[in-house]
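Structure ticket #2291
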Amino acid sequence: MWNPFKPQKLPEQKQSLGQHIHNKEHEYISTDLKAYASEGYAGNSTMYACISLVADAFGAIPLHVKVNDEVVEDHPLKQLLDKPNPDESGVEFRTAACSWELLAGNNFAEKVKGLSEVQELWNWQPYEMSVGRSKGSFMPSMYTFGKGTANQKHWQVDPITGECDMLHWRTFNPSPENPSMGMAPIEAGASEVDQANAASKWRYNTLKNNAKPSGVISGESIDPTNKKTIQESIRRKQQGANGAHEVMVLSGDLKWQQLAMSPSDMDWLAGSKMLSQEIASVFRVPTQLLGIEGSQTYANFEEAKLALYTQAVLPKLELYISELNRWLSPEYGENVKICYEEEEILALEPLRREKRAELLSTDVLTINEKRAILGYEERDEEEANKLFVQPNDIPLDDIMLDDDGEENTGEE
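Resolution: structure written out below.
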C-alpha cells in the first residue's frame, strides 16, 4: 500500500544541454555527447544551419597534391582524397569530418593500409572514442573505440614518432579535466541553445494551446444560423491568396475587431532573434546567410559569403590540411604535400578583383605583365615589355642646383 509518510522518489528529469555543462556532468567518452547532438544539432535550427553552412563549404573545396611544389593530378594520394572509401566521395568525407569537429570538437579518421600503401580513409563517430595517455606524458598512447564493450577496438600510438593509423583532429581545450579531447563549440553557446530551444517550445505551445484568430466579429444579431453563414462567407471570400486584402462589408450591428500580438509576444520574438545571432557568432557565421531579419552586418550577400570563408571555412581547412600533411602525406614519400588553390574558390572572387585592380593601376608592371594577370596572350611589340611612367615624373638625381642655389632640371 502507498504510505503517505514515506519519502517518495521524484521522477528523474532530463537535464538540458546548459545544465549538463554548468554542472560539469559530462564526458566526451560517455553518451552525453549524443544528447548534445540531438538537442543542439538536431534540435536547434540555427545551430544546424551554421554547421551545415561551414561544413558544406569546407567539403566542397577541391584538394590537390604537390610533389616538389608541382601539382600532380594523377597522384595516388590525389585519387585517395577524391575517393577515400567505397561508401563516400571526397566531398562527403571532408564534410563529415568538419561536421564532427564543429559539433563535438573532435574528428577521428582511420587510414586502412594494404600491403604497401593506404587503401581507404574512414571517419569514426567520437561518441564512444577515448584517448589513453600515460601519466605525465604529452603523447597519447592509444585510441580506443567502445571501451569496455565486446566490440572495442584499439589503435596503438608509437611512443617515439607518434605515428598511428588514427588521426585525432581536435579543437583547443583549456579544461584540465579532459585535455586529451577537443572542446565542442556547442559548450560556448550552451546557454543560448537552451534559451532558443525553450523559446521555440514556448511559441509552439502558444500556437497549440492559445492560438488566436486574426480578428473577431461581434454583434447582438448573430444567431447559430447566421454565425455559420458568416463563417462560410469569410472562408470563401477572405481566406487564401485570392482573397488577400479584400474589403469586408458587414451589415446590421456586426463589428470587426482586429487582434494584434501582445508586447510580451513581440519581446519573445526579438529575444529569439538575438539568441540566433549569438549562436551564429560561436561558429563565425554571418547572420545574413541565415536569413535573420534586421541583421545586415555586411553590405550585400557577396560580402557576407566572403566573410564566411575567410573567418570560418578557410581557417578550418588550413588546420585540417596541416594535420593530413603530418599524418597521411609521409606515406607517399618526401616532398609530397596536400594543398588547395584559392583561385578555385568562387567566394573569394571579390578579393581577387580588388587585387587585380590594384596591380593594373600600378606603374611597375609592363603591358605584357598586366595582360598575363588578365589571362591574355603577350604582345610582340617591343613597347609591350617596357615600363611606362607619368611624363611629369623625373628621377631625383636629375634635379640639380645652379650657382644661385635654385633648382635646375637641365631644361632650357
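Closing remark: Confidence is low (pLDDT under 50) at residues 1-13, 24-31.
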